[in-house]
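User: What would this chain look like folded?
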Amino acid sequence: MDVMNDGNESAGRPPVQSRLERLRQSARGWQKAQLAVLGATALFGVLKSRTVSYAPREVQLASGVLLLLALGIACWAALLVGRVAWSLPGGNTPSRRHRGEEAELWQASRGLGRGRLLTYVAIALAALATASQWWPSLA
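Assistant: Here's the prediction, encoded as structure tokens.
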């Protein structure tokens, strides 16, 4: 049995290394979308309406907190996906070498999934935070 192929060719599955590289390529593409989310979240925090907000102070405060939370979650999600997308130097520690490629593939897949989920959470929080701008006026 060839170590690089891990015996998966006979089962019709690509080698683990090939699947890991495809996962990393997917993570690199996903990270571009995450950077757009990160930029949009930061932009929502900076942009303000020129008119006076009629929303109660508590709603405005909650909006600011939600926006900061969304920004933090988007950063955390980008870190998780970045760890999958870009193999860091010095990452070949003894504990990693003994895990094996299948375990590394599983962990990378799990990190990418969590990063994607957190990106959607950040988008939802940013959308909820900007909802205070549509507060009805007293006119």
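The helical segments are 16-46, 57-85, 94-99, 101-130. If you want, I can go into more detail on any region.
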